[in-house]
DNA sequence: AACCAGGACTCTG
DNA sequence: CAGAGTCCTGGT
């Protein structure tokens, strides 16, 4: 069925949001496994004019399926209103042209988002998405050749590297975290899964205020301010998060501070104060505007 | 083949 | 407390 909310699906898929890697792309449509209360379902989305054509298989009601696809692609967000907001500021008014139809790509599995976000730190989009896809293939459950992301209790049992696997198994079958190319992040990930099985209940995060959730998620090893904001934005829908890294710093500095070098921490505060509940979207649009408009190349020097 | 990009963490002053 | 150095991998 067509869901009447304008979107650019491809742009949304390839924009590197750390909720998850892009979905499987076959015959102009994107599909992936979505588990709803433990019930596996295959979601399929296809660009039709400016809208999404959505189909699914699995034992879930149509109402529930639609709720979930709307959540993942943030289809209830009013893009037109957001574009009016962008257009009303000199610094932001070019952005909607370069990113038309870009929406938040929200987590279908918050734990997958946490590991993806840890994996994305000091890394490239291409590399972290491949690592996550590798993990799904190795340790996820297979439903018709779609793979779930392993849950925290599966995850904490994984070996870190070849040495540990050899010691325990007597041979190496690349059945360890480092074999997915995550490097020094492997111990962070395993400790993180420990925390989410023992100390933090994922469902509690939804009930917290932004500040409380930020402080809580910062306790997780491998999670600093940037990664915490990605987790809160893409994993838990906290739109007021403004994930700030070197690129956002360069862009904000160029647009608002006359190119002056500012601390990333200040950029985060600035973004949250200035943009409020649009902070997450503005961050997303800034990054892609910079990519598409050539501003990024200009700022490299 | 040496060098660089990318956040979090740890160590130093 | 700020600033510097280190971590791993894939790309040049």
UniProtKB/TrEMBL annotation:
Ranges for domain HhH-GPD: 119-291
Gene3D superfamilies the UniProt entry points to: Helix-hairpin-Helix base-excision DNA repair enzymes (C-terminal), Hypothetical protein, domain 2
GO biological process: base-excision repair; nucleotide-excision repair
EC code: 4.2.99.18
Record's keyword annotation contains Oxidoreductase: no
Alphabetical keyword list: DNA damage, DNA repair, Glycosidase, Hydrolase, Lyase, Multifunctional enzyme
Record keyword Lyase present: yes
Transmembrane segments: none
Catalysed reactions, semicolon-separated: 2'-deoxyribonucleotide-(2'-deoxyribose 5'-phosphate)-2'-deoxyribonucleotide-DNA = a 3'-end 2'-deoxyribonucleotide-(2,3-dehydro-2,3-deoxyribose 5'-phosphate)-DNA + a 5'-end 5'-phospho-2'-deoxyribonucleoside-DNA + H(+)
GO MF annotations, alphabetized: class I DNA-(apurinic or apyrimidinic site) endonuclease activity; damaged DNA binding; oxidized purine nucleobase lesion DNA N-glycosylase activity
Family: Belongs to the type-1 OGG1 family.
Listed name of the protein: DNA-(apurinic or apyrimidinic site) lyase
Species annotation: Methanobrevibacter millerae
Lineage summary: Archaea, Methanobacteriati, Methanobacteriota, Methanomada group, Methanobacteria
